[in-house]
């Protein structure tokens, strides 16, 4: 099992953690562990400067009024993502090789694909994370079927 830390801006949270096998296909985003005011102390390797910079980066997203399509199209996504990847490199340096560090573009970015995930390697290079979209479809179909069964049972 390996911990995967993902930096992805969302409203109210920007740090996520998932524990799973190293060869796991389409790993879950995981639970929110950083929101700027709450920091899971179990993973407390982040210094105050990096915490502050993460919060400033996240506030750009929340203050950028990306709640609607027009505002999202005017938001400077290129610089936002570049800064996010730079922060991931700092996170990778802080965490070391024992964890995976990933950056995922938020769904609010109009140019974001289904899952646009990048992994930061130990040397700081950025590698795309392959995504099996057919596996996602299968999982969603199984989830929908389970909900249907539960509704019929009630």
UniProtKB/TrEMBL annotation:
Domain of life: Bacteria
Protein name: Uncharacterized protein
Organism: Ruegeria marisrubri
């Amino acid at each position: 099992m390996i911990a995967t830390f993902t930096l992805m801006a969302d409203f109210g949270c920007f740090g996520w953690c998932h524990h799973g096998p190293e060869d796991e296909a389409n790993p879950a985003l995981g639970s929110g562990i950083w929101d700027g005011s709450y920091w899971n102390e179990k993973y407390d390797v982040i210094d105050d400067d990096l915490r502050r910079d993460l919060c400033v980066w996240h506030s750009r997203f929340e203050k950028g009024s990306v709640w609607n399509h027009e505002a999202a199209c005017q938001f400077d996504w290129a610089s936002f993502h570049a800064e996010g990847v730079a922060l991931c490199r700092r996170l990778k340096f802080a965490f070391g090789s024992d964890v995976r560090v990933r950056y995922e573009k938020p769904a609010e970015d109009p140019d974001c694909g289904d899952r646009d995930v990048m992994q930061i390697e130990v040397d700081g290079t950025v590698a795309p994370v392959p995504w099996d979209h057919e596996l996602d479809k299968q999982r969603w179909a199984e989830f929908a079927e389970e909900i249907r069964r539960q509704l019929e049972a009630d």
